[in-house]
Amino acid sequence: MRVVLADDSILLREGLVRLLAEEGHEVAAAVGDADRLIAVLEQAGEEGEKPDAVVVDVRMPPTHTDEGLRAALQIRERWPDIGVLVLSQYVERRYATELLTDDSEGVGYLLKDRVVQVDEFLDALERVSTGKAAFDPEVVRQLLMRSRRTDPLGTLTAREQEVLREMAQGHTNAAIAVRLHISQSAVEKHINAIFDKLGLTGTSGYSRRVLAVLRYLGT
After folding, report:
1. Engineered SS bond to 52: which of 1, 68, 101, 199, CB 3.0-4.6 Å?
2. Taking a C-beta distance cutoff of 8 angstroms, is the pair 134, 110 a contact?
3. What average pLDDT does the structure give for the chain?
4. Secondary structure class of 5 (helix, strand, coil)
5. 32 and 115, same domain (yes or no)
6. 136 shares its domain with 164
7. CA distance 38 to 133
8. Confidence band (pLDDT; 50, 70, 90) for 185?
9. Burial track 76-104 (b if 16+ CB lie within 10 A, e otherwise)
């Protein structure tokens, strides 16, 4: 696939360039700030050579707060066919939920520590490049660490919570079945139970899945 990288850490940036090249992917550009990232994509659009995916750090110059996130949201709005994989040093709940609220298709949120687990990083990048979601399981786990005494999520069984956790990571029903070692029909049954308990039976299609994940992440 064709990828553009944006991270102010030269060491990480060059490491990703080498990793992706060794895996047979093309790195169209590797930049150190959000403004340059947007400029690269604008030029690529004019030349008809848009990348399949972008990897962007949340915090970049000049303020090192949320420049990368704002660039990611802008990319999702201007070039929705480009997959966006956001990297972060820490679990930042607002950023993860804002990305999901914007549109969960073709977007991912991965902790930087996960990059050293090459297969997981490449799998997440491949998923966002093909329009799927890819959320770090650790991000999902930490977003759940809150009281559920009055939350409908607290009514879910342990297995239903496992299924919903897998949904939040962007896995399909078939993939969830394999990962949890259960049948696909069992996965579908659990998902229907989740929809019922979260009060989502009045909606239909993919929107119910997105709404369930958003509820799970605490939005």
Report:
1. 1
2. yes
3. 84
4. strand
5. yes
6. no
7. 22
8. very high
9. beebeebbbbbbbeebbbebbbbbbeeeb
Q: Which amino acid is at 49?
A: E
Gyration radius of the chain's alpha carbons:
18
Q: Domain check: are 13 and 40 in the same one? A: yes
Judged on CB neighbours under 10 Å (0-12, 13-18, 19+), 173 is: middle
> What is the model's pTM?
0.69
83-88 and 53-57 as β-strands: parallel, antiparallel, unpaired? parallel
Structural domain span for residue 107: 2-148
Q: Which long-range contacts (CB under 8 A, 24 or more apart) does 119-126 make?
A: 121/19, 122/23, 124/85, 125/1, 125/3, 125/53, 125/55, 125/83, 125/85, 126/1
Residue tagged 């914007």 (tokens) = 102
Q: What is the CATH number of the domain that holds 118?
A: 3.40.50.2300
Token output for 69 = 């996130």
Q: Same domain, yes or no, for 8 and 54?
A: yes
**In angstroms, rounded to a whole number, what is the distance separating the alpha carbons of residues 153 and 156?**
6
Residue closest to 22 by CA, chosen among 14, 30, 11: 14
Each residue's pLDDT tens digit, 29-51: 999 999 999 999 999 988 889 99
User: Which two structure tokens, joined as six digits, stand for 45?
Assistant: 């659009």
- Digit-coded pLDDT (tens) for 46-85: 888 999 999 999 888 888 888 888 899 899 889 999 999 9
**97-120 tens-digit pLDDT:** 666 665 567 888 888 888 888 998
